[in-house]
Amino acid sequence: MRTHVCQTVSRCFAATVFQSLVTALVLSRLDYGNGTLIGLPIHLIHRLQSVQNAAARLIFRLRRSDHNTDALISLHWLRVPERIVFKVAVQTYQALHGDAPQYLRQFTPVADIPSRHRLRSSTSDVKLLPLHAVKLPTAGRRAFSVASARVWNALPADVTSAPSLFTFRKR
Predict the structure, then answer these.
(1) 91 and 166: one domain?
(2) Counted domains in the chain
(3) Is this model's pTM higher than 0.85 or not?
(4) Are residues 165 and 148 part of one domain?
(5) Co-location of 93 and 165 in the same domain
(6) Are 87 and 31 in contact (CB under 8 A)?
(7) What is the chain's alpha carbon radius of gyration, rounded to the nearest angstrom?
(8) What's the rounded Cα separation, in Å, for the pair 145 and 82?
(9) pLDDT greater than 50 at residue 103
(10) How big is the CA angle at 36 (ends 92 and 18), to the nearest 5 degrees?
(11) C-alpha torsion angle, residues 140, 165, 29, 36 (rounded to 10)
(12) pLDDT tens per residue across span 33-59
């Protein structure tokens, strides 16, 4: 039994198992509802980023004073602000292509508005922000209908015209 226990313990502390465990526990918590985190104050984003940095340092056994940029890159982890924008962009892609719940599909393309047919933006894939979005308080600008349209409109055309979700995520 000693051999079995030693093998089990050594396999549990293997880098891939340890990385999977940290990823499952930490990143799932960071990703939970992160679409609602868009537009948060920077000091709150920094707190979330510190958790992600600690997880990367833990996986690679880095000291607190070591740089963790290379660790995040090798793990293929986006930083927290980019991670939030990425998740909102993916949800928007799914909503625009019918793969999301109906309540997330409330977009109006500029091309569908009669008074805006002549605009250059009507030939692109630009989505219209709700009219009240300009006057909304900070919390209102974080609503999915407003934040997703802002994120989508900021993406390059080659990204928004992706034929599949896989291609969209890759771009």
Answers:
(1) yes
(2) 2
(3) no
(4) yes
(5) yes
(6) yes
(7) 21
(8) 19
(9) yes
(10) 95
(11) 0
(12) 777 788 888 999 999 999 999 999 988
List, in sequence order, every residue forming a beta bridge with 108; answer none if it has no partner. 128
Place of tokens 């980019």: 82
- Checking DSSP bridges between strand 108-109 and strand 127-128, what pairing results, if any? antiparallel
**pLDDT (tens digit per residue) in 105-152:** 776 665 555 555 555 544 555 565 555 555 555 666 677 777 888 888
Structural tokens at position 27: 């990143």
* Domain containing residue 25: 2-77
Q: What is the DSSP string of the chain?
A: -HHHHHHHHHHHTSHHHHHHHHIIIIIHHHHTTGGGGTT--HHHHHHHHHHHHHHHHHHHT--TTS--HHHHHHTTPPPHHHHHHHHHHHHHHHHHTT-S-GGG---EEGGGSGGGTTSGGGGTTPEEPPGGGTT--HHHHTSHHHHHHHHHHHS-HHHHT-SSHHHHHH-
